[in-house]
Fold this protein.
Amino acid sequence: MRAIAVSEFGATPSIMDVGWPEPGPGEVLIKLVAAGMNPFDWKFAAGDFGDMIPAGFPLILGQDGAGVVESVGDGVERFRPGDQVYGSFFGAARGLGSYCEFTLSPQDGQIAMMPQKLVYSQAAAVPMASMTAFNLVDEAGVDEGKTVLVVGATGGVGQQAVQFAALKGAHVIATAGPDMADRMGEFGADETLDYHEVDVADAVLEEHPDGVDVLLDMVNDKRKVDLLSESVKKGGVVASTIGAADVEGLKKRGIKGINFQNRASGELLTTISEMIDTGRLTVHLTREVDLTDVPDVIADAKRGGARGKTVIRV
Ligand SMILES: NC(=O)c1ccc[n+]([C@@H]2O[C@H](COP(=O)([O-])OP(=O)(O)OC[C@H]3O[C@@H](n4cnc5c(N)ncnc54)[C@H](OP(=O)(O)O)[C@@H]3O)[C@@H](O)[C@H]2O)c1
């Protein structure tokens, strides 16, 4: 089957012909129709996580995908051939991913029935970003009446975090330029700040002199998160999705620091499907590309400027 893969960590991803996976006991074989792209995919292939996560080579990139159950292994009861499913299919130890035609998932892995409202390309954009945002908002204690600053709000995780925070009844401030400000409003943001034009911490403190309750940061390094945390009130929370919260330093200032690690599951994905089908959660697809375009798309994505999600037609 065709796949985007690397022969070793750090190699440039390219299109390869690799063998089909076979479902073992308890496993589901999925014929993918679309794969969703996430920054983790190329960071992992670049070797950014070192030996922390075992990998087999050639290593197929990607996790997120949507498609049809092709066949199931012994003992699988939750899914059957023909089911339309989506999920986060991380199989790096066996070289498996989602930028390919077929992948495997344990039946009790991060797999669920697809939201009925979505087509495959939309569904493939959901799993990692939505599950991350859902858990992040929850772990940071975002709730009704709290003021939340979302930095990186225009990205895959950010767009979902804005929606989950607004659904909780929080007052949401999102970083976004003029091209995305209206969309942030549709997602439930109460204010937007263009980080290209203003100093975000200063602008927040101008409108909210006591500071915000929660900062959710998806993009900044330790130094910048530290500067932004000046806009968080004592007793508040600073959460980073990229390990940039100085937990001890924040503690000294009476702020809880969180270096967030996602905990994904099929149950959470089922909850997200329900939220999408009842119109509470929206997915914004930026573009659809072909498998052959992926090496160039990754090079572009590394330069920044993501606006929601890119999905691969498999
Ligand atoms: N810890 C975990 O479990 C976990 C889970 C999922 C994701 N992550 C990580 O979380 C990060 C975000 O993921 P993602 O999928 O949302 O990435 P993404 O889609 O690439 O989004 C990043 C967004 O941030 C914007 N941005 C860049 N610099 C900014 C700044 N200084 N201030 C405000 N906005 C800025 C970018 O737009 P412009 O460049 O146009 O400004 C882009 O829209 C990634 O590093 C990913 O690896 C971690």
